[in-house]
Amino acid sequence: MILSCLNQHAFNLYILEFELKYSELLPMINRAFAKLVMEIDHPMSKWEIATIEEYFNYSLNLLELLNSISSSLSHLCQARLSLSHALSILETSSSLAIERLKPIHRENFRNHFKEGKKETEERSCSGNESVIQQAVIVMRSIGFWVCGIVLSGLCSDVEPYMEMSKSAGEFVNSLLSSIVCEEIVVKNGVLKEVEEINGAVAHLVAAAGAATGESGSNAAKELERRLEEIEKLLEVVGKDTNHLFSEVLAGRNELLDCLRQQKQ
């Protein structure tokens, strides 16, 4: 399914709307994992220590990545607000507006990202326990890979994807990485929507400097349209991120409850 999606959109990969499709993978694999646990009748209360540690490490790392995504979303939202404000004062205070019409700059994802704990050592197990451990490894791989794609786009930087690809492991790298990596490197991690906004900003500044009324008006409308489009997309990404954060946190809390009950 994932490879089919990539083949269909190979030339439109790095747009925010398509990143939404990637973000849908995370809740999908969480639901698949929950279904697996139920179908093989191996609930959290039966897990061994190694599996519990693996799951806790994975979920903690994913929560930190989701926090990084939220911080990057805030950066883009703030940049959008600044540009919208500049547009609102363009007619009444053109010089001040032009001064504030700045392109959206890339954000250093290291400002928000904290590298989580490393994976626990692989321990031998069999039966249902082995199935659960392997499933957690797959969730970790896909989760890190997807977060790397989203973070690279939001930060306009290839580094998050490269870092997360290292953590994702061979499962993702061997199956999925080549097409995505090539596209991200070519685009230098910059989203199409951000490129279009920056282009519209440059056009508007040039038109205002040339004092061409009609051209400036058209450029302002174009920038306004681009800002409205990205606002809607950012709202959806933010909503999905918050929902997934709640899902992952609920899974951790469920496992903690199981551990407390075992100690009683």
Description:
Residues 213-240 form a coiled coil. Keywords: Coiled coil. The chain is mainly alpha-helical. It has one domain. 77% of the residues lie in helices and 0% in strands. It contains eleven helices and no strands. Helix 3 runs antiparallel to helix 6 (127-155) and helix 4 runs parallel beside helix 6 (127-155). The longest helix has 51 residues, at 213-263. The chain is elongated and about 75 Å long. The N and C termini lie far apart (44 Å).
List the helices and strands and how they pair.
Blueprint: H1 2-8, H2 16-23, H3 25-39, H4 49-88, H5 94-100, H6 127-155, H7 159-168, H8 170-175, H9 177-187, H10 192-209, H11 213-263
Keywords: Coiled coil
Coiled coil: 213-240
Distance between the termini: 44 Å
The assigned structural class equals: mainly alpha
Could you tell me the strand content as a percent range? Answer: under 5%
What is the residue-mean pLDDT, rounded to a whole number?
79
Number of beta strands? 0
Shape summary? elongated
Observed structural traits:
elongated; 0% strand; 264 residues; single chain; mainly alpha
Quick take:
With 264 residues, this protein is mainly α. Helices cover 77% and strands 0% of the residues.
